[in-house]
Every structure is written in C-alpha cells, then in structure tokens.
## 1
Amino acid sequence: MATVKELIRSEADGSISFGDYELAVKTKLKDFNHQGDLYKVKTFKEITKLERNDLFVYESVPGTAVEHFQVTAEQVEFQVEGPEDAQITLGMEDDTEYLTIVDGVDAGAIRTNLGGKLVLSVELGGKEKVNVKVVKA
C-alpha cells in the first residue's frame, strides 16, 4: 500500500502527493509550501481533503492516497488508491463542462455546479492505483 507517510510531499515532476488512508485518527498538516502556494491536508481512513491557499481542491470519502496530483488551467491529473471505492470531489471552475477519464476509459462529461465542484466515483477496491484525468471540454 503506497500511502504518503509524510502526509504531503513535492515530487520531482512538479506535482504533489498526499493522503494516508491507513490512519485511524484524523491527522492534519498545514502551511506546506509548494511552488509558492500553501497547502493544507487532512487525512485518515474516512476522508482525505486538500486545500491550496485556503481554497478547496480535493476531497475523497473514504480516505485515499493521491500521487502525482497536477493542476493546469485545462486539466487535473493524478493517481489515486484506497481500500474501497471512493467518491472524489474536485474544486474546478464554476459552471464548466469537463471530460473525465478513469484508467484510460472515457467516463463521460460532467458539468460543475455554481460552486465549481465536480464529483466523480472511482472504483478502487483491489486495484493498485487508478489514473484519473479531468479535462476542460
């Protein structure tokens, strides 16, 4: 199981990795500096949440481990793993349509609400890692 034992870390490719779904109690780390932004992560077996500069970025129920999380103006891409299927919420642009690709399979288009939240489900049970890519349509 590839949880992120330091809760959040910078990767050589410029991405970040975060989350530890094996923790029994909620653990937090704030003010993690990555490329000029301050990140805060809260994680344990029931939930993993990430904020950047006090703004919502990622949440999963139950908790997950996320690797190589990268955000650009056009897309979000990452690898996720966990002990069971998860509902993932991403903070994106308001009222915008995105194409979702899960493990190389087109999972369809999703439109964000006025708060910019995009919700998708990922089947994780028994899989090593699942690749997720969300691209602005």
## 2
Amino acid sequence: MKKIQQGFTLIELMIVIAIIGILAAIALPAYQDYIIRTQAGEGMSLASGLKIQVADVFADTGALAGIASGGDGIPAANTVTGKYVTGVAVADGVITVTYGGDANANLVGDNLVLTPTDNGGSLSWVCSSALADKYVPAACR
C-alpha cells in the first residue's frame, strides 16, 4: 500500500508567506492613506454647514468683510469641532479648518482654507491647503 502525502512542503509554505508579505506591503500604505483622507474629510463636512451660514449672511449684507465666528449666527470657532478637527473658524467669510485631536500625525496642525469669491451676488468657494495632495479631500482637488 502507498502512503498518502499529508501536509505542505516547506517551499509551498514559503511561497504563501512571500505572497502575503507582498500584499501586506502594498495594502498597508494604501489603507493608511485612505484613513488620513477620511480624517481630512471630516473638516470639509464641518465647514459645509458654515459655508451655508456665510452665504446667508452675505445675502443679507452684500459684503464678506465682517463675517466672522461668534457673530451673525455663526458659531464661535471653538464650538465647531470633531474627532479630528480642533476648530473651524470664520474671518471675513474665509473658513479655516484646523486639524488636531485624534488626527493622524500627517494632519495635526495643518489647515484647510475655504475662500469665498463674490460672483455678482452668488458665492463660489476656492479650497487651499498645506496638506499633501494625496490627503486633500476630493471636494478640494
């Protein structure tokens, strides 16, 4: 009678470990970039509510100068926060998102700035940031 082979050879196991290592080397950095982009997206979400409030005040007054946090129904800068955002401030209609808290080290201390432009009665927004391009939210690219 023949003995049936059971188990794997050392070569087969080493090939499987090499494949897993290669996949991990590619997937882990991509996943970390995805997590950082998600954290940066929180800032855009928090700023979107303030964009509406700035537009409302602009529609009433016709000027961007003087639109600031803590006035005209716009919340104070330290009250608009999130898990990854330490503050969202408004000054002369310009919205500045500051990252901190539980944010990744690549985001902490960086800002996302949304600048309004008067288009003859309506506003358009320009986004600028010191963040690396791969971390900037899709709405700002």
